[in-house]
Amino acid sequence: MSFNIGLSGMRAASRDLNVTGNNIANAGTAGFKQSRAEFADVYAASMLGSSRNQQGSGVLLADVSQLFKQGNINETQNALDLAINGNGFFQVSNNGALSYTRAGYFGTDNQGFIIDNYGNNLQGYATDSNGKLENGKISDLQIKTTSQEPKPTSQFKQSFNLNSTHEVPEEPTFDPTDPKSYNSSTSTSIYDSQGNAHVMTQYFVKTGPNEWSMNTLIDGVSPTDPASNAPMETALNFDSAGKLIGDGKVDLTGWIPATVSGTPPVGTPNNAAASPTLKMDLSGATQLANSFAVNAVSQDGYTTGELAGIEIDDTGTIFARYTNDQSKVQGQVVLADFANVQGLIPVGKTQWVQSLASGEPVRNPGGTGTLGAIQSGALEDSNVELSDQLVNLIVAQRNYQANAKTIETESAITQTIINLR
User: How many domains does the chain divide into?
Assistant: First the structure.
């Protein structure tokens, strides 16, 4: 009996050493979760049951469980390195075979698909042809590297203050080259259908009490007749409180984009088109006793853009950043979680697969419910504590030696009995 007990103890200690050694070997493996050996005692059983004073029969390895506690997160400066701060796993696909991982080493293949360092595809919500996320439809994520097409300006919004203390200009005839013929001016870029930038300049001329005239030129020529420099004139009237009367909408749909040259400037159509809905919104304009200032300006057009970089927020939304200062959603990483993560089956390469014990995965974007936030440009370290594992090595070694001593002692006793005469 003692031989078997001691042998079971040596086997248990050896397996404990194997588990501890595997933890130590993976102390530097990103996303690795340490394991522990769990043992149970053994008692001989019979059909009639066991007595109160039943002797034990040794020990057995009951389970090797994994500890899914959070590892430290380290910055890497690589936008496609991802870490999960909290619960959840990345879902990756190998030709449809799904597995789950906490190791966020991701990059792109030659087609722009996001893959891990084993070639598995990272999965999430892709975008449709209009750039909208297809929520609920999980597929392989892809970074589209094509150029972003230009967009002509269709909405131009501006708020500014005209100085109510200004006098009517001494020069009665407006001339953009003569600062004495207007009170203030400002310029903004707008875009045509080919992505060409055009400078729209507004000249503000006080014409009377609470009355102003806004003269608009684009590239120094008339918006609707580029062969001339006659401005488009718009009346702006304010009430006694300095607020703009009317809705402040100015129609610019007649603009003809042009190439301008010469002095005085003369434009010829550049064969591009303006947005058919180009409008100016000046509803935020005021006339107060303060210096002229443009408080806010925005327009929705832009030129052609090349892919300049990728940004991923804490919900896993992937933004492509372009050289035209625009950004576009390219997809969203989803995380998977399980009712019993201890039931996941490790398959190597820092990956797990679901089992009957783990239950079905629940998939959602990062930060949803109990799922952790996704951190871009970072990796989660192994959660192995080396100091603890080195102590475990010492304990396992002593257990092995002690059980070997049991066998040695039993052998000596047996030899004594054999030597009796």
Answer: 3
Q: Show the tokens assigned to 146.
A: 């094509």
Whether 227 maps to a domain, the answer reads yes
Q: What CA–CA distance (Å, rounded) separates 236 from 213?
A: 6
Long-range pairs, 290-293, Cβ under 8 A, ≥24: 290/161, 290/163, 291/161, 291/163, 292/160, 292/161, 292/162, 292/163, 292/183, 292/184, 292/204, 293/160, 293/161
Same domain, 238 and 358: no
Which phi and psi (to 5°) does residue 260 adopt? -115, 140
Please state the pTM of the whole predicted model. Answer: 0.80
| The pLDDT value given to residue 410 | 77
Enclosing domain of residue 285 = 155-299
Q: How confident is the model at residue 421 (pLDDT cuts 50, 70, 90)?
A: low
| pLDDT band at 41; cut points 50, 70, 90 | confident
> Is there a contact between 191 and 301 (Cβ–Cβ < 8 Å)?
yes
pLDDT in tens, 207-221: 999 999 999 999 999
Joined together, the tokens standing for residue 270 give 């550049």
Token pair listed for 407: 């066998």
Q: What is the largest CA-CA distance in the chain?
A: 139
